Amino acid sequence: MRKIENRILLIRGEKVIVDADLSEFYGVATKRLNEQVKRNANRFPDDFMFQLTKNEKSEVVANCDHLENLKHSKALPYAFTEHGAIMAASVLNTPRAIEVSVFIVRAFIKLRQFIAGQKELQREISRIEKRLAEHDEQIVELVDLIRRLLNPDPLPKKRRIGF
Predict the structure, then answer these.
(1) Are 37 and 78 in contact (CB under 8 A)?
(2) What is the DSSP string of 107-148?
(3) Is the pLDDT reported for residue 4 higher than 80?
(4) Of residues 142 and 19, which shows the higher confidence score?
(5) What is the pTM for the complete model shown?
């Protein structure tokens, strides 16, 4: 499962698996996976799968050593969301694809839980920072007051009135 988690990428704000990785997990050639997807195009709306642009492909190849073989491919890879990965398993309909799809779903869930935990941690840090900022203001006021008490302004000399 760790291997699957490491292959989930963030592209266009979506957590996805590139077709080359998905086909490896499912034990089929990338060409066969993409053929089945094209034959069943109505099962793959935009929120299930999208094709990478040239720039996205270059970035993925540059950042993911295991995808180096895509560098020389003329075809632009497809990226599958969690739902697209499950749908791909159903159109491939091989025992391995069905079995591995469960692990892929679990990897996406684990990633989602991790991100949720990070957001909660960020909220807690913000709350503490706010509280500290309030204390900082109070501490500055307290220090100013102490300084004034220690160094009182000299009283102006009173003019003597009278005799």
Answers:
(1) yes
(2) HHHHHHHHHHHHHHHHHHHHHHHHHHHHHHHHHHHHHHHHHH
(3) no
(4) 19
(5) 0.63
